[in-house]
Every structure is written in C-alpha cells, then in structure tokens.
Automatic annotation (TrEMBL), chain A:
Any single Pfam family the record assigns to this protein: SBP_bac_1
Stored InterPro entries: Bact_solute-bd_prot1 (IPR050490), SBP (IPR006059)
Domain of life: Bacteria
Assigned keywords, A-Z: Signal, Sugar transport, Transport
Listed SUPFAM superfamilies: Periplasmic binding protein-like II (SSF53850)
Signal peptide: 1-32
CDD domains (alphabetical): PBP2_TMBP (cd14750)
Family listed: Belongs to the bacterial solute-binding protein 1 family.
Protein name: Multiple sugar transport system substrate-binding protein
Automatic annotation (TrEMBL), chain B:
Transmembrane helix keyword on record: yes
Biological processes per GO annotation: transmembrane transport
Key word Transport present: yes
UniProt cross-references to InterPro entries, sorted A to Z: MetI-like (IPR000515), MetI-like_sf (IPR035906), Sugar_ABC_transporter (IPR052730)
UniProt-annotated location(s): Cell membrane; Membrane
Name under which the protein is recorded: Carbohydrate ABC transporter membrane protein 1 (CUT1 family)
Bilayer topology: Multi-pass membrane protein
Keyword vocabulary terms for this entry: Membrane, Transmembrane, Transmembrane helix, Transport
Pfam family, one: BPD_transp_1
Length: 442, 316
C-alpha cells in the first residue's frame, strides 16, 4: 500500500486535481493487481489470540519474503466469527486464504465446498504426530480439510480441602455434593448451563461417557440411543438435587469460572476448560493452592469418561488465489514449535502429542521458570489433559452442526425441566429436521 | 421527488383509453419529457426494490441451503408449510404482535401528550421541540447498548436501582418490558412530530367556536380536534406499526432473542444468516412482507388512511 500511495502523490504534483484523482485511482488498481502477484499476501482469519501475532511474525520470517502473512482478527464470539467467514465465502470472496475454524465447523465448510482438501505432502505433515481426537475434528468423510491448531478439553476442578479424594462418577459427584451441603460446606456443582453451545458440550460429554451417540457415525441421521437418554437422566438428576448454583441458566464459561473463583464461593466442583487454572492463580491465589483437577466424571463406574474437545483448526479457502502458499503458511502457524509457544503463552493445549513432553522452555538458553515457562510450569495438569485427550468425546460431525446445536441447547434448556423419555423423543424429531435443514431454527 | 409525483399523477391519464384526446401537442410533449426524466429513477427503484423482492419469493419456493449446494431444488410451497407449522415461528410472531401493540399504544398516548405540549408552548418553542427530538436522533443500536449496560447486573445504574439481585434481561417478561421501554423512548418523538403536524391542521376558529358553544376541554379534544386530525393520526399509527413490526436492532442488542423474546425479524436473521438456509429464511421474509402489506391494506381500505398531502386520493 505504501508504494501505491507514493505514486498517487507523485502524479498529483504535476496535474490538476480531478485528473489526479483519476490517475491515482487507475494507479491504485493497477498496482494492487501487480502487488499481489509479486509479494503475495496470505490473509489469515482467526479468532483473537493475544500472542498469535508473534507466531505470524515467526512464520513470515521463515517464508523469507515469498509471502507475507497478515493476521485478520475475527470477532471474539464464535457466532460472529463463523458469520463473517460464511458470508464472505458464500460470495466466493478470494481475499481470504487461511480460515481459523472452530472444531465443529469443519464438516460444514467442507460440505459447502469452501475448504480445500489437504492432500499429499501437506496432508502427511498436517497429520504427523497429531492426537486422534483432534485429528478427527479436521476430517469430513475420511478426507482431511484442515490442520489442527490447538485443542481443548474439559476437566473437573475441585477443592482438595473439601474432597481430598475426588469423586469419580456422576453418582459420586451428586452424593458428595449432597453430603457437603448437609455439613454446611461449599457444595455446588458448577458448569455451563446457559442456553448455548456450552450446554451442548456438557450434554455431549455425558452422552459419550455413557457410551451413547447423538448422531450416527456418518452424521446423516439421529441416533439418540440408550447412552444419550441416560445422559438426559444424569443431567436431570444433577439439576434437581439442589446442588447447582442459582445462576445456572445464565452461566457460560466465565460465569462458571467466577462462581468457583469468587471469595466465599459455594462451589465445590467445577466442570470447565483449563483456562480456569491461570485465571485462578490471579483471581483467588489462596484457593488456587488447593484447586486440583481430575478427569470428567464417569457415567458408568469403571468406564472411562469421554469429555468434549474444543479448539481450532486451520483450513485453506477454496477461493484462495494462493493455495500452495496458504497451505504452507497454515502448516507453519500450527507447527510443533508454534503450538508450544501458543500453549505456554496463550494457554491453548497443543494437538501434537510430542509437544506435551517437550521439556524445553520458550527461551532454550535460560532455565525454565515463571518468566521462562515450559510445558511443565505452564501446564501442571498436562498429563491429565493428555490422558483425557486420548479418550475424547468429539461432538457430532455434521455440516448442519449449527442447527443441531441450536436445537439441542433450546430443548435442554433449562436442564431441570428435562423429562428423559419425552425430551429424547423431542430431540429425535427436531434434530432430524435440523439435519435435513428442513425445520425452522428457534 | 416532485417529478415523480407529477409523473405518477400523469401516468393514468396517458395510459387511459381514448377520450382524453383533447390534450394539446405541447402538453403531450411535456408529459413525455416528464416520463423520460423520471424513467432512470423509476428503473433504479425497480432494480433495487422489485428485483430483490421477486428474488426472495423465488428463493422461498426452493430448498436452498448454502451448506448443501448440491441439494438445491424447487419445492413449491413446502417451505411455507414448514414455517407456518413451526411453533418457533408462531412464538416469535406472537412476540412481535405483542411488542407492536404495546409499544405503538404507549407511543401514541405519550406522543400525543408531547405533541400537545410542543404545539401549545409559547416560550422557547424551538428549544423544546429540539430537545424532545433528541432520542429520535440517536442511532438505535447505540441507544440499545446504553439500555443494555444500564440493565447489566452489578454495573448498570438501572439494574442497581430497580432490581439489585436479579438479571432482568435474562427473564422473559422483564426483558420484554425493557425492549418496549427502549422502543417507546426512541420513537415517541417521531410519533409526536407526526401528530404535531396534524394539530397544525386544526383551525383555531373551530376550537374557539366549540368553546363558545360550551364544550369542555375534553369535549373539544375528543369531538373537535381528534376528528379533524384523523388523517394525521392514522398515518402516524400506520407508519409506526409497519416500523414496529419489523423490530430487530433493539432485540438483537438487548437479548438476541433469548428467553423467547425474538421477533420475526430475529427469527429470519437466525435462519438466513446463521443457519444459511436461504429457502426458509426467504420464506420468513416474504411472510413478514405479506403481514406488513396486510396491515397497510387494513389501514388504507378499512380506515381510509391516505398519504399525507393527497386528501382526496385515499379512497380511489
């Protein structure tokens, strides 16, 4: 752009204003066209992440002038991110090259023909060493449509002073909470119970833990089997036993975190993403010392729980004019080294298994510590995360995920009004409509 | 604008069958020039309004989901059956109707009072009129955000004043009330402005004559002022109802349709923009278009509302 403007000004000094304008306009368009051919710009559209610009700068250095990655920040909320990309892709906008997709959007973008398929060498590199759960979220119909950037998984956080041995199953959680309540101690089980994606994640975790499925494997029809009904029963029991917080139906991730973090908190158990750990150190250092973590509760004793995974994948737009460079840029942005950097500086768990066991701190020349974190210091719970990631609960993969999720969160809200059999029946019929994009969205 | 009005009155004349042949050569040339002059404007209007309307109708007759481009097909009226048999649609339709009725009624009463005040003021007339119009001059989204922050628990001043313990925007009826409040606050000045124009139509002599005949102030208002103002009142109500029925921005900012406070426009947005379902979404927008047309029809045919300035033309 700098050179463009200079040319425009140069012309202006020689001619009359109106002509100047014309010349400048022509010059701008001609130069813009030339510019994109010589110094290629790769536009990355990704959610706001505090230190992601550093990753972009690293990759630009590595590209050595062959292309220049520009980080375009999408809105903070997931719906806003999806909306902006979808609107532009529907209009076949060729200015978007790399797309940061929430793990639930890959199927949708692939089916609509907006995400380019990964093949050959790029595919091999994108799959190398990636944990199977996160990798599954980047595939649609056995083809790879994105490279995993980071993952996320819900754990159960508890206070070791209240329950030195954490409960392992939902039955135990409910019993422990009731007992604590009787003893007059903090007792609440807090989770994301508001009518939004968080409630769907919670329901999906319990369903998967109970060995159930909401959708069939191909994502084309409704399953809603015994496990899914069992999950409705657990959710109902949990929310009618008098052990949830009064603000449950308003609680998204942050409200949930705060209700555990606040001074005088009545919460004993929290189901949430690992971001609560660093927040707790700052928000309530006194309780942070006693906050421990364990895997998501089991639905059936002895059957390992399966907790919902989140995170982001990087896809390449089908309309991108620089696809080879876009693939290369995407691979760099999520390389093992950059995943480690993002993990310790922005708290987003890596998808590449080896990163978890990498002892090297950010600055390898100095010893690891608070100022120079490595995976061990930034992620004391990394072993639990890794364990859980090996038995993940992937949310249903379907191009109509947005519809399915809207229907589930509407039908399950508020969770205390669930009537397992009737609710399951309603879910079956409304999800069927949603899958065929027939029904009306609430 | 003036050429357009001239053209639209000229149009039926030139288009009428023989019998008006007595037009002189000069007059006809003038007409032709008039038509030619407004043709570009008319064409642009057609391109930017008629075409999208027709295209929406066409889309509403198809199964068309951007995520399943391969499955696009013509399905006749099936989308209409889906939408009209959906409880979600009727919930938002009920919400919209309720919001329209309540907010227009309140706006009418308050707007009338404001109009009378503005009409009768003797001192600082300009200042009072300007001040009264300030809410209407504020961008709706900006105003909606200030209402939202005012009602945010812990930090909002109205939340602390009215209900320190509750989150009003997350409960259905309170949220409904806040949406009405935001609407009424915002558009009452508009209503007042239209009604004030109507008040100016009432001849002072008429009111004085009534008072000489012994009519009380209330009788003068109900029996003299209101009947004379009827056209202005109907126009004001019509404008506001059409507007209120399409309410979107206030709801989008205040609740985003949660707790069943979404209007039909919010539903349309959710299906069209978020759900990417062009078929269902277009069906909804066509239904909104039809509803608005029905409201306008009832006002024009039922109550004889006429466009301002064409007093005799309303019942043609």
């Amino acid at each position: 752009m700098g050179s463009t403007r200079r040319v425009g000004r140069g012309a202006g000094s020689r001619s009359r204003p109106l002509v100047t304008l014309g010349v400048a306009l022509v010059a701008t368009s001609v130069l813009a066209a030339c510019g994109s051919e010589t110094g290629k710009t790769i536009n990355v559209y990704y959610a706001p992440e505090e230190n992601f610009q550093t990753v972009v700068d690293n990759c630009n250095e590595q590209a050595n002038g062959r292309y220049q990655i520009v980080y375009n920040k999408l809105p903070r909320d997931a719906d806003g991110q999806r909306e902006q990309m979808v609107r532009r892709l529907a209009a076949e906008d060729d200015e978007m090259d790399v797309l940061g997709l929430d793990v639930t959007w890959v199927a949708e973008f692939a089916e609509a023909g907006w995400a380019a398929e990964w093949t050959g060498k790029n595919k091999a590199e994108a799959e190398e060493g990636v944990l199977p759960g996160p990798l599954e979220t980047a595939m649609w119909q056995d083809k790879l449509y994105a490279a995993t950037k980071n993952t996320n998984i819900q754990l159960m956080w508890y206070d070791e002073r209240l329950t030195p041995e954490p409960p392992e199953t939902w039955d135990e959680v409910i019993a422990a909470a009731k007992r604590l309540k009787q003893q007059g101690k903090p007792y609440q089980v807090v989770f994301t119970g508001a009518q939004y994606e968080g409630l769907v994640s919670m329901y999906n975790s319990i369903t998967e833990s109970a060995g159930g499925q909401i959708l069939s494997d191909d994502g084309l029809s409704v399953e809603m089997d015994e496990g899914a009904v069992r999950a409705l029963e657990i959710l109902h029991e949990l929310t009618t036993a008098g052990i949830t917080a009064p603000g449950l139906t308003n609680a998204q991730e942050d409200e949930t975190r705060l209700s555990f973090e606040a001074k005088g908190s009545q919460a004993a158990f929290q189901l949430n993403w690992p971001f609560v750990y660093p927040a707790m150190q700052e928000g309530n250092p006194e309780r942070a010392e006693h906050m421990k973590w364990t895997r998501f509760p089991e639905a059936t004793a002895g059957e390992p729980s399966r907790s919902t995974i989140g995170g982001y994948n990087l896809a390449v737009s089908s309309y991108s004019k620089h696809q080879p460079e876009a693939f290369e840029a995407a691979l760099c942005l999520r390389s093992a080294e950059n995943q480690k950097f993002s993990a310790v500086s922005d708290g987003v768990p890596p998808t590449i298994e080896s990163v978890y066991n990498d002892p090297e701190p950010i600055d390898p020349s100095k010893p690891a510590g608070d100022d120079n974190p490595n995976m061990e210091t930034a992620y004391p719970m990394k072993d639990t995360i890794l364990d859980a990631l090996k038995e993940p609960g992937v949310r249903p993969l379907t191009p109509a995920y947005q519809n399915v999720s809207t229907v589930i969160s509407t039908v399950l809200s508020p969770p205390s009004s669930i009537d397992p059999q009737a609710t399951a029946e309603r879910l079956r019929s409304e999800i069927t409509d949603a899958l065929e994009s027939k029904g009306v969205l609430p | 604008m003036t050429t357009e009005v001239a053209a639209s009155t000229a149009d039926p004349d030139t288009g009428a069958p023989a019998g008006k042949k007595q037009l002189s050569e000069g007059k006809r040339a003038e007409r032709r020039l008039g038509l030619l002059l407004c043709a570009p404007a008319a064409l642009v209007m057609l391109a930017v309004t008629a075409w999208p309307v027709i295209y929406s109708v066409w889309l509403s007759l198809q199964r068309y989901d951007l995520r399943f481009p391969g499955q696009t097909e013509f399905i006749g009226l099936e989308n209409y059956i889906t939408v009209l048999s959906s409880p979600y649609w009727w919930t938002s339709f009920g919400v919209t109707m309720g919001l329209t009725a309540v907010s227009v009624a309140l706006e009418f009463v308050l707007g009338f009072a404001l109009a009378l005040i503005m009409h009768r003021t003797i001192v600082a007339r300009g200042l009072i009129r300007t001040v009264a119009l300030i809410p209407y001059g504020i961008v709706t989204v900006v105003a909606a955000f200030s209402w939202r922050y005012a009602f945010t628990p812990d930090t909002g001043y109205l939340a602390q004043l009215l209900a320190p313990e509750a989150a009003l925007l997350t409960e259905r009826m309170p949220a409904f009330g806040i949406i009405v409040l935001a609407e009424v606050w915002k558009t009452t000045p508009f209503m007042a402005l239209l009604l004030m124009a109507g008040l100016a139509l009432v001849p002072d002599d008429l009111v004085k004559a009534a008072s000489v005949d012994g009519a009380s102030p209330w009788q003068r208002f109900i029996k003299v002022i209101v009947p004379v103002m009827k056209p202005a009142i109907l126009v004001a109500l019509l404008f506001r109802m059409l507007d209120a029925f399409r309410i979107f921005d206030n709801i989008f900012v205040l609740t985003n349709g949660a707790q069943q406070t979404g209007s039909v426009s919010v539903s349309t947005y959710n299906n069209l923009i978020q759900g990417l379902n062009l078929g269902i979404g277009s069906t909804m927008s066509v239904l909104i278009f039809i509803t608005v047309a029905i409201i306008a029809f009832i006002f024009v045919k039922g109550f004889g509302t006429a466009a301002p300035g064409s007093d005799d033309g309303g019942r043609r």
